[in-house]
Write a structure and sequence with these properties.
Helices cover 30% and strands 25% of the residues. By secondary structure, the chain is α/β, with parallel strands linked by helices.
Length: 225
C-alpha cells in the first residue's frame, strides 16, 4: 500500500494544485519512482489511497500497467490519517501481511528484504515490522528505539521511522472503518508487548516533506544524471 491521501500542508503552495505524490524530482513524480522500486522487488499488486486531488493521481497512474504493476485505489472523502487510511483499505489488502510505504520518501532501500518480516508476521511472532533510519537534521528527536531486533517507544538511542513497514491486518481490525486514527496509537500497545520488530536502514533516505527538500532531491538526482 502506498499512502498518497494527505493534504501536504508543509508542501504548500506547491501542493495546492498538484498532489504531493505527483511533485517531480529528477524529471519524474515521487510516487512513480517509488512504484518502480516496489516493482523491482516483485511487489506488483498495489493499493494507493487517495483523497486530496486524488483524481489527478488516478489519471497519472491509471491501472499501473505502464509501470508493470496493478493498482487498486482506496478513495477517502477526507484524509483518515495513516492508521485510519490503512484500516479503510483493508478490504483491498486481503488477509496476508502487507507492506505500507509513504509516498513522499526517496530511498535506496531494497523492499525485497521485507519478505522475511512478512513471514514472521504470518507465523504470529510479531504484529508489525518497521524500517528505521538515522535521525535527519529536521527531526533530531527521532520516533522509536531499536534494540535486539525489537522496536520500543522509549530507549537510549532513538531513530526515525522511515515510513516503511509491514503489518498484520489484525493490527487494524478494531479501527471503525472511515474513522481517523494515527498509526503510532496502534503500534505503541504492540510495542509494549514486544510484538513490533524492526531494522535499521543505513543507506540513502530522504523525507520529501517541504519545497526545500524537494529542491534538494532534484539537485541530487540531476547531479547523478
Amino acid at each position: 500500500m502506498i499512502l498518497a491521501a494527505g493534504r501536504g500542508e508543509r508542501m504548500r503552495p506547491l501542493s495546492d494544485r498538484i498532489p504531493k505524490p505527483l511533485l517531480q524530482a529528477g524529471g519524474r513524480p515521487l510516487v512513480v519512482a517509488l512504484i518502480e522500486s516496489l516493482a523491482r522487488a516483485g511487489m506488483v499488486e498495489l493499493v494507493v489511497n487517495v483523497s486530496h486531488l486524488g483524481s489527478l493521481i488516478e489519471q497519472e497512474l491509471g491501472d499501473g500497467s505502464r509501470h508493470r504493476v496493478r493498482i487498486a485505489y482506496s478513495r477517502e472523502q477526507e484524509p483518515l490519517e495513516t492508521g485510519g487510511g490503512i484500516a479503510y483499505a483493508l478490504p483491498l489488502l486481503g488477509a496476508e501481511p502487507f507492506v505500507v510505504v509513504n509516498s513522499d520518501i526517496h530511498c535506496d532501500f531494497d523492499f525485497a528484504r521485507l519478505s522475511a518480516a512478512a513471514a514472521a508476521i504470518r507465523s504470529g511472532a510479531v504484529s508489525a515490522h518497521l524500517v528505521l533510519v538515522d535521525n535527519p537534521l529536521h527531526h533530531p528527536a527521532g520516533d522509536f528505539c531499536l534494540s535486539g531486533g525489537r522496536v520500543a517507544a522509549d530507549g537510549a538511542r532513538r531513530l526515525t521511522f522511515a515510513g516503511i513497514g509491514v503489518y498484520a491486518p489484525a493490527l487494524f481490525a478494531e479501527v471503525p472503518r472511515g474513522t481517523k486514527r494515527q498509526l503510532a496509537a496502534l503500534l505503541r500497545p504492540a510495542m509494549a508487548q514486544g510484538r513490533v520488530s524492526g531494522e535499521h536502514h543505513g543507506g540513502q533516505w530522504m523525507d520529501i516533506g517541504t519545497p526545500e527538500r524537494l529542491a534538494a532531491l532534484d539537485r541530487l538526482l540531476a547531479a547523478r544524471a
